[in-house]
């Protein structure tokens, strides 16, 4: 399968002065927005970006089936210049469309001219004499900046478990977040997918119909819910814009728990009759995506009895789509693996049906673990060796702190890595003591993985999230 190839071209030749007011690390939603704001206010600002183009997570995560699980227009910038003439094709856009969106953002806001692409920040050392951070890049340059803003997101450092014999495998293997731009041929191949998180679910349902054989290594079943994606007409979007709905949608994001256009109902579910509860669940279900979870009554997350009721509802839906009894129990067990919604729910469209194919097996890692990678494939602890042409590592990230601690950051009293090794300490989820004028958004103790990225990474409303932006802008 060959994903769409990016069209944004970016240069590494961006002029980078030795002295700056603000240096941003990363040019995804957060970095782009900050660059736009700081520049508008007359600060000297540049962003350093390891990728060759804008987009952050949407640049890196180009694995087959990568798709956002938040609907449009909630998942986008609320900058009028950007939204007024941008039109999406799908309710839940795929990675290729998001890549095109970032190109549009660049055309509108002229971001790339202040981004140094294909370059990594290696270290940042605070100089107490000058009150500046000396930031070194992997191209040998050093920049001295007053403010260091880490827009590194929560999932920029891939996690690959230390599998024994990992490098001995002779076939093709890729972590999903480092999927080659030119794609990987999986048609007719023997493929393994390790991991069944949001990424694993998307890869499995995408490649399942075309691979020769598929082995899914599952540690925890994914209580995935249907997305019910559909194409969206340009005129449908234009009408909402014409009627003045877009600013209302964006405002609504500021009023809900996780920055969507809907939220939990604060009344107990038990106040409804069993029949009314059932109808409610059905209504939320057919709306697709997270509604059944985050648009439900609050106590489905806090009352174990109501949570069981929701799990039972979900399970009935899942079982109806899985033919084999044993497979039913592995994918949708009678005893819930964890409270419904306490582990991030994923969205899918044909995930469960893939397991009805005769060429798809599920390796239940609660029964047999991965013992080692071999030159031909993977051997499990039961002694079975499976041979593969392609191994897909959908094993997630060194989340939340990893993007920051992979940089050697040294404040006046030591490194951030050493400090956080003793326990994560932050101020309002935007800074940490003894690292002066260093801030982040969408990182440790921020709403981060529990929030709609484009909103939470850029919010300029009075909230802890924007405390640092307000601080810098009024300094
Ligand atoms: P993830 O949720 O951390 O899932 C990693 C998977 O790998 C899990 O199934 C995990 O099992 C498994 N795993 C980890 N170590 C393993 C090992 N040693 N052996 C076997 N299996 C192992 O990562 P992700 O799926 O990439 O998702 C990360 C985050 O990215 C999501 O929470 C979401 O916020 C975001 N995301 C969003 C979208 C979207 O918007 N549509 C799509 C993809 C990802 P356990 O569950 O047992 O730990």
UniProtKB/TrEMBL annotation:
<keyword id="KW-0285">Flavoprotein</keyword>
<keyword id="KW-0274">FAD</keyword>
<dbReference type="GO" id="GO:0050661">
    <property type="term" value="F:NADP binding"/>
</dbReference>
<protein>
    <submittedName>
        <fullName>FAD/NAD(P)-binding domain-containing protein</fullName>
    </submittedName>
</protein>
<keyword id="KW-0560">Oxidoreductase</keyword>
<dbReference type="InterPro" id="IPR050775">
    <property type="entry name" value="FAD-binding_Monooxygenases"/>
</dbReference>
<dbReference type="GO" id="GO:0050660">
    <property type="term" value="F:flavin adenine dinucleotide binding"/>
</dbReference>
<dbReference type="InterPro" id="IPR020946">
    <property type="entry name" value="Flavin_mOase-like"/>
</dbReference>
<dbReference type="Pfam" id="PF00743">
    <property type="entry name" value="FMO-like"/>
</dbReference>
<comment type="similarity">
    <text>Belongs to the FAD-binding monooxygenase family.</text>
</comment>
<keyword id="KW-0521">NADP</keyword>
<dbReference type="InterPro" id="IPR036188">
    <property type="entry name" value="FAD/NAD-bd_sf"/>
</dbReference>
<dbReference type="GO" id="GO:0004499">
    <property type="term" value="F:N,N-dimethylaniline monooxygenase activity"/>
</dbReference>
<keyword id="KW-0503">Monooxygenase</keyword>
């Amino acid at each position: 399968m060959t994903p769409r190839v990016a069209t944004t071209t970016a240069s590494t030749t961006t002029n980078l002065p030795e002295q700056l007011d603000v240096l941003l690390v990363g040019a995804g939603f957060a970095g782009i927005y900050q660059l736009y704001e700081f520049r508008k206010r007359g600060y000297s600002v540049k962003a350093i970006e390891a990728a060759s183009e804008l987009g952050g997570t949407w640049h890196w995560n180009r694995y087959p089936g990568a798709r956002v699980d938040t609907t449009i227009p909630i998942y986008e910038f609320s900058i009028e210049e950007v939204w007024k003439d941008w039109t999406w094709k799908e309710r839940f856009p795929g990675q290729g469309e998001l890549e095109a969106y970032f190109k549009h953002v660049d055309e509108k806001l002229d971001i790339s001219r202040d981004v140094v692409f294909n370059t990594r920040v290696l270290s940042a050392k605070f100089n107490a004499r000058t009150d500046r951070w000396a930031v070194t890049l992997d191209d040998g340059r050093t920049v001295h900046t007053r403010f260091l803003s880490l827009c590194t997101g929560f999932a920029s450092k891939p996690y690959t478990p230390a599998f024994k014999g990992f490098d001995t495998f002779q076939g093709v293997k890729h972590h999903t977040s480092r999927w080659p731009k030119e794609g990987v041929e999986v048609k007719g191949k023997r493929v393994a997918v390790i991991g069944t998180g949001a990424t694993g679910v998307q890869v499995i349902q995408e490649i399942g119909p075309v691979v020769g054989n598929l082995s899914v290594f599952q540690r925890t079943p994914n209580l995935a819910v249907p997305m019910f994606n559909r194409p969206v007409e340009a005129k449908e979007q234009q009408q909402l814009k014409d009627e003045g709905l877009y600013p209302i949608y964006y405002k609504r994001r500021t009023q809900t728990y996780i920055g969507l256009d809907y939220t939990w109902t604060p009344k107990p579910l038990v106040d409804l009759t069993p029949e009314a509860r059932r109808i409610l669940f059905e209504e939320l279900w057919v709306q697709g995506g997270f509604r059944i979870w985050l648009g439900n009554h609050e106590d489905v997350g806090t009352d174990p009895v109501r949570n069981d009721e929701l799990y039972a509802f979900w399970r009935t839906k899942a079982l109806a789509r899985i033919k084999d009894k044993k497979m039913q129990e592995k994918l949708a067990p009678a005893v819930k693996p964890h409270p419904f919604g306490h582990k991030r729910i994923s969205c899918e469209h044909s995930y469960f049906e893939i397991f009805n194919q005769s060429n798809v097996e599920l390796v239940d890692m609660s029964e047999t673990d991965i013992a080692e990678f071999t030159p031909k494939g993977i051997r499990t602890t039961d002694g079975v060796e499976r041979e593969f042409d392609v191994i897909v590592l959908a094993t997630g990230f060194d989340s939340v702190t990893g993007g920051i601690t992979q940089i050697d950051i040294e404040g006046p009293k030591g490194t951030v890595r050493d400090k956080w090794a003793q326990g994560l300490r932050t101020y309002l989820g935007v800074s940490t003591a003894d690292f002066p004028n260093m801030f982040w958004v969408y990182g440790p103790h921020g709403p981060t993985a529990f929030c709609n990225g484009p909103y939470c990474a850029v919010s300029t409303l009075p909230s802890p999230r924007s405390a640092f932006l307000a601080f810098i802008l009024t300094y």
